[in-house]
Amino acid sequence: MIEIVNTAPLLTVQDTGRFGNRHLGIPRCGMMDSLALQRANLLLGNTVDAAGLEISAAPVTIRSLQDHSMVLMGSDMQASVNAQAVLPGVPFTLSPGDVLTLTRPRRPGERAVLAVAGGIEVPMKFASRSTDLNNRFGGFQGRALKSGDLLEVGALSAENISRCKMSRSIRQLTPDRILRIIPGPDIQYFSTRAQDTLFQNQWWLTPQSNRMGLRLEGATLAVPAEHLRLSCGVLPGQIQVPASGQPVILANDAQSTGGYPVIASVINADLWKLAYLTPGDPFVFREVSVAEAQGLAAAQAMELQKLRQYLSWGQT
Fold this sequence. Notes:
The protein has two domains: about 1-165, no CATH class; about 180-295, Cyclophilin, CATH 2.40.100.10. It contains four helices and 21 strands. The protein has helices at about 35-45, 160-165, 190-200, 290-310; strands spanning about 1-5, 10-15, 50-55, 60-65, 70-75, 80, 85, 90-95, 100, 110-115, 120, 150-155, 180-185, 205, 215, 230-235, 240, 250, 255-260, 260-265, 280-285. The two termini are about 25 Å apart. It is of the alpha+beta class. Helices cover about 15% and strands about 25% of the residues. The radius of gyration is 20 Å and the shape is elongated.
């Protein structure tokens, strides 16, 4: 069991997300950097979808009430355990009474993942332990964590114990400022000039962004007259263009339907990068084909499988 001593906004329990329920109006939710969670879980011997904590701001202080093995991934939160530095991708152990302190991200606005051997044990809702902040269910009582909350940790498996004894570490992936995209279902309604504007200009994240949508600022995209169409299903990663002409990238907590035209979609292999877009830092979109997007997703899955095999090597 672990105790939340001090917290910052949007500290939540998340796993890899809630799938197969969008027809019921239920969003995906889950860790913004799902890839970091999967890698951290493999390092600890968890299943890849075991729940951890998403840390969106700091300072955060967590006290261990039992022996626990953990690993931080994502942004470097300048963390320490009893004043000893903790680095991303390097497992560490907490004894009863030990305190993990996350001071601040080295780059404001970036997120981190905290995985625990055994996984955070909260009730399953629609086949996921993720927190749905908008609908107020899942995770820990359907809300962000606050001081005094006590979180149960799952029982350790033989693989947990074996992996944690190996003391291996992995490198945190470094996101670049390029989001690869494929054309969206409404791109034919946008003029060639509007399409070129999307692909050839820099964009910035605004402070009004959240887990539902990342609002962008930059050149204005001319919205087609057909933008007043009926709502249809939407997914995380899709880039909507409202009447303002300033795009919005739908994120994990995005609604299941929307009426704004979708000019493009961030490919699955790059969705994890959305966790590290920060206000004031420019980034660009780069168009790829659907075949390239599928190949990149397959390569990412293959890398996870290679990591699993690497970490399993030498286990007894």
